[in-house]
């Protein structure tokens, strides 16, 4: 089977840094993606890690450690518009399928 | 350049009726995925299709649910004899295919309410 664990909720103030951890148990694991979803909206792609290390895209960075079955999404210089749910998703090569975690709701306060 | 188009955005059905949800993938994309999302929960994989083929339906309930992606026209997720537990947001996503899915492109979802 496949499972991804991430915290259910994180609260922070504008300008702060938030790290959302994701641990996974996935046979045939190939890579880890992150998606953002605002209330009532569509999930949108943020980042993808297939190799160990840090990928930086503007204020958002994502990290993967395959040996630890662990990754995280780092949100820097938080803005009010970053209030949303963030999902990690494991890509399994066999079957070409993404399996999503339960999501972390990030609430940014003034 | 249109993204993934889903319709209807909102659908209300009474118990026992049928629901049909449509998804047109992004231009040039031949792979379609359907996910279901309950309030405050993650996205649960339902089915993965390519044109005229069901590749993986391991997340589909065995009864009442079916999906297709015909050679022409949108992909359709069909729910027969709906029950209250079917109330959820159903998201369609597409990708161009290939050996690695780096990114899925999601539609805005169809929100089904069963009375």
Summarize the structure.
The complex is a heterodimer of chains A (110) and B (115). Chain A is mostly beta strands. Helices cover 0% and strands 63% of the residues of chain A.
Features of the shown structure:
heterodimer; A: 110 residues; mainly beta; 11 strands; 0% helix; B: 115 residues; 7-stranded mixed sheet; 49% strand
Describe this structure in words.
Chain A is mainly β. In chain A, 0% of the residues lie in helices and 63% in strands. Chain A has no helices and 11 strands. In chain A, the strands form 2 sheets. In chain A, strands 2, 4, 5, 9, 10 and 11 form a 6-stranded mixed β-sheet that branches. In chain A, a hairpin with a 2-residue loop joins strand 6 and strand 7. Chain A is globular and about 45 Å long. The termini of chain A are far apart. With 115 residues, chain B is mainly beta. Helices cover 0% and strands 49% of the residues of chain B. In chain B, the strands form 2 sheets. In chain B, strands 2, 4, 5, 6, 9, 10 and 11 form a 7-stranded mixed β-sheet that branches. The termini of chain B are far apart. Chains A and B meet through strand 4, strand 5 and strand 10 of A and strand 4, strand 5 and strand 10 of B.
What are the SSEs and their pairings?
The complex is a heterodimer of chains A (110) and B (115).
Chain A: E1 2-5, E2 9-13, E3 18-26, E4 29-37, E5 44-49, E6 53-57, E7 60-65, E8 70-75, E9 84-92, E10 97-100, E11 104-109
Parallel strand pairs in A: 2-11
Antiparallel strand pairs in A: 1-3, 3-8, 4-5, 4-9, 6-7, 7-8, 9-10, 9-11
Chain B: E1 5-7, E2 10-13, E3 19-24, E4 31-37, E5 43-50, E6 53-56, E7 65-68, E8 75-79, E9 88-95, E10 105-106, E11 110-114
Parallel strand pairs in B: 2-11
Antiparallel strand pairs in B: 1-3, 3-8, 4-5, 4-9, 5-6, 7-8, 9-10, 9-11
């Amino acid at each position: 089977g496949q499972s991804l664990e991430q915290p259910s909720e994180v609260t922070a103030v504008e300008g702060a840094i938030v790290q959302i951890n994701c641990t996974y148990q996935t046979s045939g694991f190939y890579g880890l993606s992150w998606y953002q979803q605002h209330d009532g909206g569509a999930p949108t792609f943020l980042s993808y890690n297939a190799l160990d290390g840090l990928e930086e895209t503007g204020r958002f960075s994502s990290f993967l450690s395959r040996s630890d079955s662990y990754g995280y999404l780092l949100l820097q210089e938080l803005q009010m518009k970053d209030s949303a749910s963030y999902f990690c998703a494991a890509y399994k090569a066999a079957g070409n399928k993404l399996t999503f975690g339960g999501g972390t709701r990030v609430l940014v306060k003034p | 350049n249109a993204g993934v188009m889903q319709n209807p955005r909102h659908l209300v059905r009474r118990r026992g009726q049928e629901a049909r949800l449509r998804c047109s993938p992004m231009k040039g994309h031949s792979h379609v995925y359907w996910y279901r999302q309950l309030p405050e929960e993650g996205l649960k994989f339902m089915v993965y299709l390519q044109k005229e083929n069901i590749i993986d339906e391991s997340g589909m309930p065995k009864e009442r649910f079916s999906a297709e992606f015909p050679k022409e026209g949108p992909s359709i997720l069909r729910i027969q004899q709906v029950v209250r537990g079917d109330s959820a947001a159903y998201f369609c996503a597409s990708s161009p295919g290939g050996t690695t899915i780096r990114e899925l492109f999601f539609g805005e979802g169809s929100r089904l309410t069963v009375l």
